[in-house]
């Protein structure tokens, strides 16, 4: 058992959260590159999360992420403005590659990252032993959905925050806030994941490259777009037909879970529709539950997405902070967010399911 700090909880002696205990929620935004990091900070993010240009993070797309020099510059930019940078080290290395993840932890400490976001216990253990002052956040990839799971990570690795998977109802989030030994972060906007994060097998089934180990749901080397004479397009992943699109139909980056499939003679989105999570209407309830941070998904998205979504959530959070009793959902906020949603559609996802 290690000794852990309760500084993140002030003087509450690490007691479980009390229903109705409100905090000033932190806004955590994506940074797929240095311009996106700067856009997020300028638009009002309290913190950004970023990754190195390798498979240590779960958005290992070509042309994305940070070199060592770029991350140093990004950290300096954020710290000069009183903001934070978290390093995503949220994939699962096999035993032959652990040294690369350990090296990334060393760099996070050396460069001055404010925290790492990790799921693999060996990575968390290394950070705990070698860099105890470096804060450790349990990644959504850790799939911690129960209070005992959160307690284990807190007691064993001294985590100071945990990111909850996007499979929980609002009632489940509220109960976890009551019993969690650490502050909790939830996804507020962006792409959904139908799996309990960290356990997806779909992409590895089709391509042989696990998203949990290699950092990409659909590796670009396996993606093939085909243009047809009638203007339609189709997309294949490792020669498996994932979807077909009409000429004017928007098409996002192809993943197996959001493809259309023939099921009993009917072709439809059998697993998940290409829509974005949007919890803006739940903001007061999440605040009252004691959620510590709201996370925006989208490190693979561009600067325009990052800036616009961050500004919208900043406005909503600031209005709630200043006048929680009179806070109301503004149509302009929703209109702005819908422009950046997958398929221009948004959903509350599992948050609104009636069973829990």
3D structure, described in words:
The protein has eleven helices and 15 strands. It has 356 residues and is α/β, with parallel strands linked by helices. Strand 11 (261-263) and strand 12 (266-268) form a beta hairpin. The chain has helices spanning 34-43, 68-80, 98-111, 121-130, 147-157, 170-179, 202-207, 211-214, 283-289, 303-322, 331-338; strands at residues 26-30, 47-50, 84-89, 115-118, 135-138, 161-163, 184-191, 223-227, 233-237, 240-245, 261-263, 266-268, 276-278, 293-296, 346-347. Helix 1 runs parallel beside helix 2 (68-80), helix 1 runs parallel beside helix 10 (303-322) and helix 3 (98-111) crosses helix 4 (121-130). The strands form three sheets. Strands 1-2-3-4-5-6-7-14 form an eight-stranded parallel barrel, surrounded by six helices. It has a three-stranded antiparallel beta sheet with strand order 8-9-10, with no helix packed on it. Strands 11-12 form a two-stranded antiparallel ribbon.
């Amino acid at each position: 058992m290690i000794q852990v700090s309760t500084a993140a909880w002030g003087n509450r002696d690490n007691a479980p959260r009390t229903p109705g205990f409100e905090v000033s929620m932190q806004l955590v935004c994506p940074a797929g590159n240095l311009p996106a990091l700067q856009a997020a900070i300028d638009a009002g993010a309290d913190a950004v999360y970023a990754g190195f240009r390798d498979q240590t993070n779960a958005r290992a797309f070509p042309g994305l992420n940070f070199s060592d020099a770029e991350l140093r510059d990004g950290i300096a930019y954020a710290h000069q403005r009183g903001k934070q940078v978290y390093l995503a080290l949220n994939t699962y290395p096999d035993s032959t590659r652990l040294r690369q993840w350990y090296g990334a932890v060393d760099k996070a400490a050396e460069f001055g990252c404010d925290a790492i976001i990790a799921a693999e216990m060996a990575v968390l253990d290394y950070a705990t032993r070698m860099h105890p002052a470096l804060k450790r956040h349990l990644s959504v990839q850790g799939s911690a959905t129960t209070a005992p799971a959160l307690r284990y990570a807190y007691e064993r690795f001294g985590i100071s925050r945990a990111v909850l998977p996007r499979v929980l109802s609002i009632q489940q989030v509220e109960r976890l806030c009551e019993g969690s030994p650490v502050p909790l972060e939830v996804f507020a906007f962006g792409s959904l994941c139908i799996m309990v994060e960290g356990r997806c097998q779909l992409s590895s089934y089709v391509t042989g490259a696990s998203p949990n180990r290699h950092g990409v749901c659909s590796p670009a080397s396996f993606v093939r777009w085909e243009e047809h004479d009638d203007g339609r397009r189709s997309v294949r992943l490792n020669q498996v037909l994932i979807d077909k699109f009409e000429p004017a139909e928007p098409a996002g980056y192809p993943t197996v879970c959001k493809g259309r499939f023939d099921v009993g003679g009917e072709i439809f989105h059998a697993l998940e529709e290409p829509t974005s999570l949007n919890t803006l209407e739940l903001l007061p309830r999440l605040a009252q539950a004691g959620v510590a941070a709201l996370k925006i998904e989208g490190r693979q998205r561009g600067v325009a997405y990052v800036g616009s979504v961050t500004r919208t959530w900043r406005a909503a959070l600031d209005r709630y902070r200043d006048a929680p009793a009179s806070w109301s959902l503004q149509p302009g906020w929703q209109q702005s967010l819908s422009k950046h949603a997958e398929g221009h559609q948004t959903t509350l996802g599992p948050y609104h399911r009636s069973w829990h």
